[in-house]
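Late entry, evening session. Most of the bench is empty. Finally got around to the prediction I had been postponing all week. Sequence below, unchanged from the version circulated by S.P.
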Amino acid sequence: MTSGLELHEAASVGDYDTLEELVFSKKIDINLRDPEWQDRTALHWASAKGYVECLRLLLDHGADGLARADMNWTPAHFACETGKLTVLRALVAADVPVYKRDKYGDKPADIARMYGYHDCVKYLHQEEINQKQRRVQKGLPDNSDDESQLEP
């Protein structure tokens, strides 16, 4: 019997081969949360550790790019805590919004600023402008703080 947390382990150490095997087995919920680690998903781990290939694999197979961990942190928040600009770029390339607020009102860029990752802050500032423009082009409101994805 599997607990499903093997997926988290593989994502947290960048073991792409094991992660791929687990994903393709379809025996584990790709969005499974680990209650002992602040409700993180495998995608949160890959984002925090900077394993872009693992992140892409997870997103390509249904991982929720806006999954919320404890304090409503998204994968982008975890990437910003550790200064993983390549992860932010991969999230954006996968059309994952990178500007959602956590339970304290902080966006990922705020987290990057707190930790001194100025390259992440600069990138996210520009990307938020780009995302607003894309929303307007699609006829959607330009409000980037739309929190319809927040969990109760």
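Two things to note before I forget:
The chain has eight helices and no strands.
Residues 6-137 form a domain with the Serine Threonine Protein Phosphatase 5, Tetratricopeptide repeat fold (CATH 1.25.40.20).
Will write this up properly tomorrow.
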